[in-house]
Amino acid sequence: MVLPFDIMEYQKRLDNTKKRMEEEGIEILCVTNPSNMNYLTGYDAWSFYVHQMLIVIIDEPQPIWIGRTMDANGAKATTWIYDDNIIAYPDYYVHSDIYHPMDFIGEILREIGQGNRRMGVEMEQFYFTAKSFQRLQRALPDAFFMDASNLVNYVRLIKSDQEIEYMRRAGIIVDQAMARTIDYIQPGVRENDAAAHLYYNLISGTPEYGGDYPSIVPMMPTGDHTSMPHLTWTEQTFQENSPVVIETAGCYKRYHVPMARTISLGQPGERMQYVASVVQEGIQNTLQAIRPGATCSDLEEAWRNSIKRYGFEKESRLGYSTGLSYPPDWGEHTASIRSDDHTVLQPNMTFHMIPALWFENDGIEISTTFRVTETGYELFTSYPLELIVKDNIGYSSNPISS
Amino acid sequence: MVLPFDIMEYQKRLDNTKKRMEEEGIEILCVTNPSNMNYLTGYDAWSFYVHQMLIVIIDEPQPIWIGRTMDANGAKATTWIYDDNIIAYPDYYVHSDIYHPMDFIGEILREIGQGNRRMGVEMEQFYFTAKSFQRLQRALPDAFFMDASNLVNYVRLIKSDQEIEYMRRAGIIVDQAMARTIDYIQPGVRENDAAAHLYYNLISGTPEYGGDYPSIVPMMPTGDHTSMPHLTWTEQTFQENSPVVIETAGCYKRYHVPMARTISLGQPGERMQYVASVVQEGIQNTLQAIRPGATCSDLEEAWRNSIKRYGFEKESRLGYSTGLSYPPDWGEHTASIRSDDHTVLQPNMTFHMIPALWFENDGIEISTTFRVTETGYELFTSYPLELIVKDNIGYSSNPISS
Question: So what's the ipTM on this one?
């Protein structure tokens, strides 16, 4: 078995998790977020559509993985934990109106004498349902439950050098995939064919680095729909004199580098050029504010002040911490770049900055993913941070900015 | 706006949902499952990584969509419901430790005088977290909550002719994508490059039908890992004399046709040929048992008896209802083909039958998706239901079966 990280790195992640558990008075952490399960053990499979859990016991050296029988071999193959700590529940627990995997998990915890402890559960996590919590409480009447929703997520906030290296590879992959997809897009081409090209390049990757699947599929609104950032592609063809937004991410060993660009098919109107130039200037001003010691709110302020000069404002947050992820999101649900988030930037924090402006009938997205360095920032991609204009004779960046 | 279904079809779905609500004494249904939201309204966007809800009030003609501000335009564009019934919450509710979208939703329900009714919530549904339920209860102290986890899912069980037509298109897409991917795979090719080819073909679709994204990414275990059905691809190359399992689905307008095949690179060993022939015979015997009036357990029994003759048994269920879906699953969480499921088959029910056998060091998967017809079954794909043997001079089906 080849793990993506040295076993010492997993051990350190587990130690850091236990430190936080101790601070919060949690004796047993019930990890259900697939990204957190992967972070602590290496576990990597598309098995999170059934219930599974990684149990971290504060005074036990190794966590326990509990999942479906057909997934136990995969847990043995992709994690560093002992085979004895891989426990499987029978298939009749799957999608049943009678049985629930949390009954089984509770029973295991009672059997090993851990049924009466202080349990942290990820209350705000998609793969821990409302019913999961009810059934786990019922199965463990002597336990005391606490919310530990983002406990491991916060351990993930500052990346190791190896994690950064994986993100650099994801950056190389998405840079190339975006460039090739923009090359391919033209009026008359079907949107789904462009999405197919994008996917091909994201997964094929480079001769050195094979791509992993991004946690969000390519989003590709066009025309009026550029005001609707989370629409995917259709079977329709691209139209002349129409904008296209592509938001996607490169992914390498589950590490993401998201990236968005707006393409104008044909010369953009004056308004679009103007909005794009405001966004482009805002990006540069925000990037200049990045350094260790600055806060997320400082970055948001740099952006807000930059676009305010032109009469614009953005209601939604400017960005969020990103990195390791499983569907449905590549955000880490910890630090957000917004006015009330005073997280202090530290080297090897990584953010997707999405300085998009959406209006009633259109929108502009030009996003980038950066790492905080000792002195400033490193971008994971090199594709120009500009509106891309593509007409019959080729393409160029926003004429206003050049 | 072009909806994938006639507005009368959405109306009928809503009526059927209200009928079930009435039977169960539910006055307000809080729909958070993205597939159910789409089924009732057409709503289609990758926005389910933040909280959103469709509220069906039994004595109101139209449901209410509540979601994030940046997604409201998408809801207006992709659904048949009135713009006035699209309500947006501000961005500070997103991934916040303080604010929760369910606070907002509760407030809206109180404001419109619906705060004290009998509410059905999807307790066992990934996009309704344990915290969502806590916060909704807190926001609506006068409401009475009931579990309505699969209420809409069961309305989805029998497909309309238009839904079946979309599944036929998904079947054409996956048939072709599977064939081309198997053509492409050979020793020395990287797994991720094969996944890239598969993705390209699934999304590009055919000249007539553009592919949508499947709710599960391609799974592609090889060698020993064929005992681990939910592993995805790696950067490694395919090896000679080694099996490869591909499980994927064609998707058209969110309708899925899943399909799995096992490929032997080089002539398979005797054991693999033997197991494959047992599975192939089991498939045919199970298919013969499909007809309206038979039960899910009847199909499982046909399969079980067929493989028992050769000393095999399968611990996991034989299949499940499939069709409309969003990640992380293409199963509908209603009828399962297993011994304790006595669902009576009716025309236009659709199932993914996955008669896979997994052992300690290998596994065989040959799956198909079928519709129950008036007299028997219709398969959505035509690729042979056999072990595919690929050697240097070309490929063929399992020699034992032919």
Answer: 0.96
